[in-house]
Amino acid sequence: MSKKAQERIEELREKIRRHDHNYYVLAQPVISDQDYDFLMKELVKLEEENPDLVTPDSPTQRVGKDLTKEFRPVSHKIPMLSLSNTYDEEELIDFDRRVRENLPEGEWPEYVVEFKIDGASVSLNYVNGLLKTAATRGDGLTGEEITANVRTIRSVPLRLNVKKNTKYSLDDIEVRGEVFMKIKDFEKLNRERETAGEKLFANPRNSTAGTLKLQDPSLVAQRSLNLFVYSLISTEEELNSQYDNLQILRELGFNVNPEVHLCKSIAEVIDICRTLEGMRSSLDYEIDGAVIKVNSLWHQRIIGSIAKSPRWAVAFKFKAKQAFTRLNSIIWQVGRIGTLTPVAELQPVFLAGSTISRATLHNFDEILRKDIREGDKVVIEKGGDVIPKVVAVIMDERSPQSKPVKAPRLCPVCSSVLFKPEGEVAFYCENSECPAQVRGRLEHFSSRGAMDIEGLGTALINLFVKLGYLKIYPDIYELKSKRAELVKIERLGDKSIDNLLGSIEKSKEKPFHKVLFALGIRYVGSGAAKKLADHFGSIEALIAASAEEIEQVYEIGESISSSVRKFFSDEHNIHNIMKLKEHGLKFESQIVVSRNSFFDNRVFVITGTLSSLSREDASEKIMKLGGKVTSSVSKKTDYLIMGENPGSKFKKAESLGVKILTEEEFLKNLGEIN
Q1: Catalytic positions, please?
Q2: Domain 2-61 bears CATH identifier 1.10.287.610
């Protein structure tokens, strides 16, 4: 019976996988729901009778029974970068020009155009054809594991259909995609929440992101999530192109959006973007634009990336949806670096899947330019379908009694006199102890992408600032000395305070680049913080670095270097850093340096495409051996490592007499070839 049971179990699993693919991926079911249920019930019964034959990839194992107590961090092998946005066809033409300028002479790019799905990005790792882990995007470098929840999504294969793929060996791959919720499923979910007296989700994207972080997989399974995949990554195989990769993903059993277009020119790209935008209202899921990618992966490597986004891809945002409403009043918000932003308080109106009651007015010059006044009837739209903004005033309906808005003179929070730098449009509150700035800085410091202090959210920060417990970052790490006072606060108590203090203590384990990002230096995002931390190795070295030395770091420009220098010239910031060091936060890079006489204390620049490893991998190897990697050639450069199709850096290195290393010579010095 055991052999017969095993054969029948495998037969049922294969049938159910095929029917799942037909239903959830192809939208072409070939059997009734009742017949499908019969197959599933038979499989469940056989597995219950033969528990030793149950495998993780069985269709019965999609929904786990264990609660997820903690979403552990997962480091992405290759950063999940965000895309730069374009909003008109001229910007697409500029993108094409930049792409062609970065390619070798005689090389012409092809482009792949796809829908930009409005959902939550995920990364799936498959080993030997089986789903191993799934993770959120996080800050692009580190996400959170959500494997149990992603397994419940029926369009996610637990086992790949590797038989259909014969071109490559894909034993260890990463697949990236966008989890989303269909509009009808989102509306059904909100109706159920309204009936239950629960808070409604603002839009399908928010409901998707919230669902992926639920602790109970059985609840996730009830939410009808879907997945479109758009990227295939292999560290073992030399894949050819984006278009080919999408075909491979289809063969493996993934749900690839049907609207994938290969274009020979930017003119074709623009035509396809127009077509896709025209399809928008007929779709049963939300999109907010199109994604344009250079097709050749070899071209992608040549073009490279900047700290936050790839140079070989761009998002083309479709025209925003608009609505009309009344602007009741204008208020001013103060950000964490003191910038004042005007905000329109609106008569609530439904727009693009959510109810809008506030919209940004950008700055005072924008208010004057559009002649926006309190009481006006205005046109609002979602910029990139995310942030609502006021785009115009309906002048015919303006009241004769309306008056122009006056420029702010005092901070609306602390009443300090405002400062407006010459040549800038923004007003600033220069009082570093302004409660609004304090709250903003503390929120950023404790946020998930920075120190990730669970429990220290907006409400608690506001309360602790009001009570005088928090003013600067180090105060967070001194809360443990006030435990007796904190547990007496209404609705907190022993357990919640102990959980908070435990999370604060755990945050001390965050690496240097996370701490550097948490400091909130203007223009220093998570990607730039990682590059600076890896390059300088310690906070002392970064503090001592000149603007010129900072700009030598790969893909770090003048705006970042001047902001870093300004931040470290402030004695208050240095004082905070010293206090944080006393509390045990990490201000040194964890890269283990093994000194090598060839690389130690020498400066390297990499140009062209390396065939055996990426520039990022080469840079990391050099730094681990005591060397430094910079982005530009100068008299201080010791060696230029030259790959295929080197650019202008090669000519500059020759003119300065910098020594040139071929890739083979570089690898020999690494000891990776004989």
Answers
A1: 116
A2: yes
